[in-house]
Write a structure and sequence with these properties.
The structure is a homodimer. In chain A, about 20% of the residues lie in helices and about 30% in strands. Chain A is built from 6 helices and 7 strands.
Chain lengths: ~170, ~170
C-alpha cells in the first residue's frame, strides 16, 4: 500500500481507454469493487511532461508524470474535471545520488533517476470507471507484470483525497 | 556560478540550432570565448522526457530534462557523441514540499515542482560551437531574460567533466 501511495499522491498516474479491463467481482455481479487497468497504454513514454515528483520514506522514488494529448490539453487550458480519454502516466525510478555529478559540483548535492521500478496509470472514463471517481487505475512492475488487486484497491480511496478530480499532480509550466 | 552549475551536472540542457548567436569577443576577432544561445528554442515544452534531477544545497531545485527528436533518437539508440541538431532542455523549478500530498500520505515525505526558476539549453553544432565541445549553451530566467556572459562562461568547463560528450544526464527508460 505504501508503494502504491506514491502514485496516489506525489506522482499521479493513468491508464488506457483501450485497455482490457478486469474485475472478478464486477464481472460476477457488480458490487462496489473498482475496475483496474491490465494493459500498459501504448506509446506512453513519448507523452509530454506534466511534472516531476519525489517521495521519501519507504518509497525513496523519483518520478516523472506524463500525459497523453487529452490530459495535456486539459491541464494547459485548466479545464477540469478531466474529460474522458485523458490518461496520466507516472514513471517511477529509484532516487539515487549521482557520483559523477557530485564530483563535478565538488560536493554531494545531486540526485538523479536510478533504475526504473514501476509505471502507474490513470485513465479517465466517466462511465466505465464510475465506481472509482471516473478513473481507472493501473500499476505495472518493471518486468511488465501488473500490480495485484489488493494494491490497486488502495488507489481510488487515496486519490479521492485530492482537491481536484482525483489527481494530485499539478502541471509545471 | 552555483546556479548554472545545476544545469551543468544534475540537469543537462540545450539550445537551438536556429538560435541567433552572440559573443562580443568572437565577433570582434575570435578568441577562445564561447558562443552562447540567446533565443529560446520554439516548442521545447512539448519535447519528450529524457530524465529528472534534483539538486540540494543552494540550488534546491527540481528539474525535468527534455530532448528534441534528434537528441531522443541518439539517447534511445545509444549513439554518442550526439549528432548535430540535438538539443537538450533542462526545466528548473523550486523543490518544495507538498502539503496536499503529505496530508494524503499521513506523513511528510512528498516533494513536487514549485515555481519555475529558469530553463537551460544545450545545442549540438560541432562547427558553430567547436570552441565549447561542439555544444552551445543557454540560460533563460523565468521572465525570459537570458543569463549573463559571466554565468554562461561557466557551462562549458563544467560540462567538459562529463564522461560522455559534455552531457551528464542519462536517459531514463
Amino acid at each position: 500500500m505504501r508503494r502504491f501511495s506514491l502514485f496516489l499522491v506525489g506522482i499521479t498516474v493513468a491508464g488506457c481507454v483501450f485497455a482490457r479491463i478486469f474485475s472478478a467481482s464486477a464481472q460476477s455481479g457488480g458490487d462496489a469493487s473498482p475496475i483496474f487497468i491490465t494493459k500498459i497504454p501504448a506509446g506512453y513514454r513519448d507523452w509530454k511532461l506534466i511534472s516531476v515528483a519525489h517521495e521519501e520514506a519507504n518509497l525513496n522514488s523519483f518520478g516523472a508524470v506524463l500525459g497523453n494529448d487529452v490530459a495535456i490539453k486539459a491541464y494547459r487550458e485548466e479545464k477540469f474535471p478531466f474529460p474522458d480519454g485523458a490518461i496520466i502516466a507516472a514513471l517511477h525510478y529509484r532516487f539515487v545520488a549521482s557520483d559523477e555529478n557530485n564530483k563535478a559540483f565538488g560536493q554531494p548535492q545531486s540526485f538523479v533517476a536510478g533504475d526504473p521500478t514501476n509505471v502507474q496509470f490513470m485513465v479517465k472514463d466517466s462511465k466505465m470507471y464510475a465506481r472509482t471517481g471516473g478513473w481507472g487505475f493501473g500499476h505495472f512492475n518493471q518486468d511488465g507484470t501488473p500490480g495485484g488487486e489488493a494494491l490497486l484497491k488502495t488507489c481510488s480511496p487515496c486519490h479521492a483525497k485530492a482537491s481536484r478530480d482525483f489527481v494530485f499532480t499539478r502541471y509545471s509550466r
